[in-house]
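Q: What structure does this chain adopt?
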Amino acid sequence: MDYRSSMESSETLRNKCAACYRQFNKMEHLVEHMKISYHSGHEPTCGVCKKHCRSFESLREHLIGPLPKQECKNIFSLRGCRFCLTILESSNARRIHQERCQFSSVNSGLTTRMAALGLRDKALIDYMSSRSPKVVALSCKMVGGGSDGSLDLCARVCITDESDNVVFHTYVKPSMAVTSYRYETTGIRPENLRDAMPLKQAQRKIHEFLCNGEPMWKIRPRGGKARILVGHGLDHDLDRLQLEYPSSMIRDTAKYPPLMKTSKLSNSLKYLTQAYLGYDVHVGIQDPYEDCVATMRLYTRMRYQKHKIEAYPLAADAQNRSNQVAWRQSEVERMSPDEMLSISRSDYYCWCLDSLV
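A:
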């Protein structure tokens, strides 16, 4: 290799992103990439080559997709967990880890029959318990209203804690006539709603429980008494409950960037549960308890990931917004790719930060 080729190769390496490994012809192009990519230590990362991926779907494609990186694929096939995508020390360690990593399904058929008999209804919430949960999962099941039955009406709601215990469960009487009970998927019959809790009463109980004595305007993610709310598609559930809750307290598995598709669209709860927890949901009649358990397990898996602790981890933090001024072209172009990555911050709230509360 002649001197000129050697210099060009060195320049190309210098213009290579330290996170996603994209290469650029010019340093200023790399700087612009770093400004808009929001790479950080909170992104899913390949355990072999350390490449940062925007989502776990992207990481899965990198490891076992149609066009994987061959070296990473070979190592992952021997030592990689197919659920959390972690690389273990040996194939035996992988076997032991994967057995623990895979969850078993809740018996949705049994819980549905119990609920139909009223055996799992829990319309009272113990607000004063010393073991009162700080994080809860919520799920609703909808029946149909309107002339064609396409309008979603909340007819059943369940709240569970981190240990899969039922905190609140009740059938809900919609405020308008039901024209389709959607029994094949909801398991709900007219008799279940005849003496059910009115929507306004369920709304009030849930709101009081979530706020836990704090006024809405005072609720904040850290240091307060209000509860973190976990679910899948919570915008829709809360809308059907006619309930407002601060977005800073919501952990939605349908909108969390690491759990979304590479196209940035939401994955279904059925897919997420099968891919990351190792069991099936929504087989036959759907139970809100089953959904609560699945979303809480997904949240817990994301929450307890080990990432580097940073004083100001978000690009939106005031300290980092002022830091954006530091991305002055002339100064940053003198940095190495690793130095650029060290000052880059995430554009989403990583759930691992909940463990620091």
